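Researcher: Good morning. I'm working through a list of sequences from a screen, and I'd like to move beyond sequence-only analysis. For each chain I'm collecting a predicted structure so we can compare shapes side by side. This is the next one on the list. No need for commentary yet; just the structure.
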Amino acid sequence: MARLILFNKPFNVLSQFTDKGTLASTRETLSDYMDVPHVYPAGRLDRDSEGLLVLTDDGKLQARISDPKHKLAKTYWAQVEGIPDEAALTALQTGVDLNDGRTAPAEVRPIAEPANLWPRNPPIRFRKSVPDSWIELTITEGRNRQVRRMTAAVGHPTLRLIRVRVGDWTLDGLGTGEWRDIKA
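Model: Good morning. C-alpha cells for this chain:
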C-alpha cells in the first residue's frame, strides 16, 4: 500500500530532502521537518511559497499528482499588492498571457484574510501607501511560479502565497511545519 503524507511547508524551506547548493549552504529542507525514508514530493512548491506539499513512495501516484496532463486542481491563497478590480479577476479567470504562453482559465475569487493563519517568518513587507488583499485561485496547470506570474501580469504582485488544496487533500488541521500520514 502506498504511503501518502501531507506536509504544511513553511516559508523558505526547499521542497526536497537535501540542498544541492553550496557546501556552506544552510537552507532548510524537508529533512529538517521529517525523517521518513523513501518518500518524495509529488510536485514542487517554491521556497518562498508555503502550504500543502504531498509526498508519496508510489511513483505512479507521484506522476498522477504532479503531471499537468492529469489536470489535478490546486488551490492557493494569495496575498496580493493592491485590490484587484473586476477586469483583473476576469483576466485571471479567462487566462493570462505569460512569456511561456497563455494560462488555462483559473477559478478566482476575492477572500477575506484567512482566519487562524500562522504568522510568516519573516513577515511580508508592509507599506502604508499600498493596500493589500487576498484572493483564492484554483489552477490545473503547474508552470514554474505560475500564480505569482499570473497575479503580476494583471498588476497585482503576490506578496504571500499559500497552497491550501491539491485535489481532494487539504491543509486542514496542519500547522506550519507539521505533517501527517493519510490513506492513499
